[in-house]
Amino acid sequence: MSVDPWTLLAILVMASITYATRISGVLLGGRLKLSPRAQAAFNAVPPAVLVALIAPSALATGGAETIAALAAAVAATRLPLLGVIAVGVVTVVALRAFGL
Amino acid sequence: MTAGLREVRDGLRDIAPAAIAAIPIGLLFGALMASKGLTPAEVALMSGFVCAGGAQLAAVELWVHPAPILALAVSTVLIDARHVLMSTSLARRTEAFAWWQKMLGFYVMSDENWALGERRAAERTLTPAYFITMGATLWINWVTTTTLGAIGGAMLGDPRVYGADFAFTALFIGLAAAFVRGPGGMAVVAASGLASAATYVGVGAPWHVAAGAAAGVATAWALAGEDEEEALA
Q1: In angstroms, rounded to a whole number, what is the distance separating the alpha carbons of residues A89 and B153?
Q2: So where are chain B's domains?
Q3: Looking at the structure, do residues A10 and A57 belong to the same domain, yes or no?
Q4: Is the ipTM of this complex over 0.85?
Q5: Tens digit of pLDDT for each residue in A11-54?
Q6: How far is B128 from chain A (nearest CA, A)?
Q7: Chain B contact for A21 (CB, 8 A cutoff)
Q8: Which chain B residues are closer than 8 Å to A38 by Cβ?
Q9: Who has the most CB within 10 Å: A4, A48, B26, B102?
Q10: Which of A11, A35, A60 sits opposite B46 (nearest CB)?
Q11: What is the DSSP track for B131-160?
C-alpha cells in the first residue's frame, strides 16, 4: 500500500484543476456569457479530446485494433457503455487469435 | 417521514441506475490503472480526490513513471472544461444551498447527477439533501469499485492476453459517442481522430492529444457559423 510522492503530487494537481472547473459556475455567479459559436466549440471539447486520446491505438497500432475500434463505434450507436466495451474486447481478442 | 428524509430517498432512487451501471466500469478502471503501475492506495487517492471518470481515464492513458504532471494537467483541463458550462448552469438553481453545501455538492458534480439535478430543478426547488445524496452515492461507489478493481487487477497479470488493453479504447469510443450528435459531431470526431493519428505517427506522443483536440474544436467552431451567432448576439 505505497504512495509515490510524485504520483501524489500529480493526483493533487488533477484534483485542484477538476475542482476549479466544478466550482467555477458558483464563483462566477452565472456571469459567464458565451456566444453560440463559442458554446459549440466548448461542447466539442469532450468528444474531440476523447477521440484524440485513442486515435493512435485505434488507427495506428494494427489491423485487429482498427477493425475492433470500428466495431465498437457501431456498437456505440445502439448499446450501453458496457456492451460497447464487450464488443470491442471480444473483437480484438478474436482477430488477434487469427493473427491479425 | 420528514421533508429532508424524503429528499434523501428521492436522491437515492434517482441516482441508483447510474450508480449500478458504474460498478463494473469502476472495477474495470481500477484494473486498468493497476496495469499502468498504480498501487491500490494511489488509485483510491486519485478516485477520492479527483473523482472524474473522463479525466482519470485520460490520465491513465498518458501515465508513465514518474508521472508527467504537465501533460496530465493539460489533459485534465481539456477533459474537464465542460464542467464550467455545467456548473454555470446549475449554480443558478442553488438558492436553497448554504455556501458550504455548494462547496461540497459541486465537488462531487458528475455528468449524471448534474443532469438529474437540472431535471429536478425544472420541476421543484433543488435541495442540498437531494443533490448531495446523489453525489455522495456516486463518490462512495467510485472510490470503492476502482480500489477493488486495482486490487483484483494487480492479480490478473498481462492485460493483452484477454484484450483488456483494448478496453480503454472501446470505453473511450463509447464515452465519445455519447457526446456526438448529427453530422457536425461526426465531423468533429473525424477531424480529431485523423489529426491525432497523423501527429502521433509524424511527431509522437503526447502532442497527438493537443493536435487532435484543437482540430476537433476548430471544426465545431467553423461549422457553427457566423449567422447564428449574430442572430442571437
Answers
A1: 16
A2: 3-179, 181-233
A3: no
A4: no
A5: 999 999 999 999 998 998 766 677 888 888 877 887 888 898 88
A6: 14
A7: yes
A8: 221
A9: A48
A10: A11
A11: HHHHHHHHHHHHHHHHHHHHHHHHHH--TT
